[in-house]
Design goal:
five-stranded parallel beta sheet
Length: 515
């Protein structure tokens, strides 16, 4: 409230004559004449002014008339030493709340003050109810807009423009998804409140609930370059260190209603959160929002072959090869399906296959210990983070089991053959593993071993076959154990190198003949 009187003692006395706090008032200032009252009103915007009529310069009625030009809701109580009907008539014309004669009756003044206080409280409650109603209506409208379900009659009505405030040149829709290892039902509500305070304080638009997301309608704040980074920082600051997020935004449009056609694209992009980079705001595209085509039959996934190659790279300690194999497996899996469940289950199968092979050929590998790689895989929030982590863990495993001492390449290759002779290994496989041209590697191998690759492999297999036959295994079992799927082919190879059939060799060695 503001006290206006040309007599200092009256100005001072009125400040304590009534218990202003009791009625919700605070004396914000005083003025000694009408002109000063107009000036202080413009600064203080009081709810109530106690003003004398007779003052030098601009009198009280003139001051009220001037103030009423810009303020129709301020309450006035007139103080006057003159009980003239003309003054009272003018006071009524200016919509004053009371006309109090001097000397002031304390009870009369307090009665007027109490009545004004009740009126202000009522108006405040009405204003609060109106604001709450507006917020609820705006929230509902924005939810429908973000979901692409805003009714045509609502979107074309005056209500839309009223609820969204002054028109903007550009509008943009932003949806934010939150996630955390420590799941909390209050995550969205907290972000909505904190980010809402920033956005509305800066008059950039409105923040609303768009379950399971938090929505933001931006007005004349285009998410590009620096502004997108600024928004990212605001969201990150509101979320705190324990909560992760990813955002998806539409392009800027001229009319709010145009955002309806972006709803599927923006929310659809967030459904692919696993393939997006975390802690970032991504821009949606209408061209990419159509339903993806089914994977063709030609894009069948061969987990075994991918696992075999990755294991070979681990086994020889080829770190560059490990990284390349992970990348190739990644591309093969994603070519079939990029859904989080498919990608993770495919990688889990592939890694289980690799780890089983590693544990068989390398006693130092604990299958339980290294299955933690798969556990970490399922905990990854984003694909790129998962791949980085996989590469790191597999490179660590490569150092643990890889044969990467000072052996020459040829010695590594012959050792590799000794460990994997029972598998379907080929010169081309070794060339790729050791990064050589297959023709050149064949010549190097012949020079080093004195034998062609296939001959050397056959000799290794036959030598192991002899050991197994001497242990009493049946011929067909030996054939399968050393890498010959066809028993007849094994017979011919064995006879070629040993001059007798496997069964004859077994009989000659004193073992009973058994096919």
């Amino acid at each position: 409230m503001l006290i206006v009187d040309d007599e200092p003692m009256i100005r001072e006395g009125l400040q304590t004559l009534v218990d202003w706090n009791k009625y919700g008032f605070v004396v914000a200032g005083t003025a000694s004449n009408g002109r000063e009252a107009v000036e202080k009103h413009a600064v203080l915007l009081p709810d109530l002014i106690l003003i004398d009529i007779r003052m030098p310069g601009m009198d009280g009625l003139q001051a009220i008339e001037e103030i009423r030009k810009t303020d129709t809701v301020c309450h006035f109580l007139i103080l006057s030493g003159y009980a003239e009907f003309n003054y009272a008539k003018q006071a009524i014309a200016h919509q004053v709340d009371g006309y109090i004669l001097k000397p002031i009756d304390e009870d009369e003044l307090e009665s007027y003050v109490e009545r004004v206080s009740e009126q202000l409280k009522h108006r405040s409650e009405q204003q609060l109810n109106t604001e709450q109603t507006t917020q609820l209506l705006r929230e509902e409208l924005l939810q429908q807009l973000a979901a692409g379900k805003l009714a045509t009659e609502a979107s074309s009505s005056v209500e839309l423009k009223t609820l969204l405030g002054p028109p903007a040149k550009y509008y943009q829709l932003l949806l934010i998804e939150l996630y955390s290892r420590e799941h909390s039902l209050t995550l969205n509500a907290t972000l909505k409140k904190k980010l809402g305070e920033i956005i509305e304080q800066k008059q950039l638009g409105f923040v609303f609930s768009a379950e399971p997301f938090v929505g933001v309608l931006l007005k004349d704040y285009l998410l590009q370059n620096g502004s997108r980074e600024q928004m990212r920082q605001w969201i990150e600051a509101c979320c705190g260190t324990r909560v992760r997020f990813v955002g998806a935004a539409s392009e800027a449009v001229r009319e709010p209603l145009e955002l309806q056609r972006w709803s599927f694209a923006v929310s659809g992009l967030l459904k692919q959160r696993f393939m997006l980079q975390g802690q970032q705001i991504h821009l949606a595209s209408l061209a990419e929002s159509s339903k993806p085509e089914e994977a063709s039959a030609n894009e069948e996934l061969s987990i075994d072959s991918l696992a075999q190659k990755l294991f070979y790279m681990l086994d020889i300690g080829n770190k560059a090869g490990v990284e390349k194999s992970v990348q190739e497996a990644s591309e093969s899996i994603c070519a079939v399906d990029t859904s989080e469940s498919f990608v993770k289950s495919s990688w889990a199968q592939l890694l289980t296959n690799v780890l089983n092979k590693a544990s068989i050929s390398n006693p130092q590998v604990s299958i339980q210990e290294d299955l933690s790689i798969i556990t970490a895989l399922y905990l990854a929030h984003h694909y790129d983070e998962m791949i980085v982590q996989l590469k790191k863990r597999l490179l660590d495993l490569s150092e643990k089991i890889g044969k990467t001492d000072s052996l020459t390449v040829m010695k590594q290759i012959t050792d590799f053959i000794e460990r994997h002779y029972s598998e379907n290994i080929k010169l081309e496989t070794l060339a790729e593993l050791f990064n050589y041209n297959s023709g050149y590697l064949g010549k190097m191998f012949k020079s080093y071993t004195g034998e062609h690759f296939n001959t050397y492999l056959d000799q290794v297999r036959i030598q192991h076959a002899i050991e197994l036959l001497q242990e009493g295994l049946k011929v067909h079992q030996v054939s399968e154990r050393v890498g010959y799927a066809n028993v007849d082919y094994f017979h011919s190879k064995f006879k070629k190198y040993k001059g007798v059939s496997p069964s004859s060799f077994k009989s000659a060695s004193g073992k009973p003949v058994s096919e």
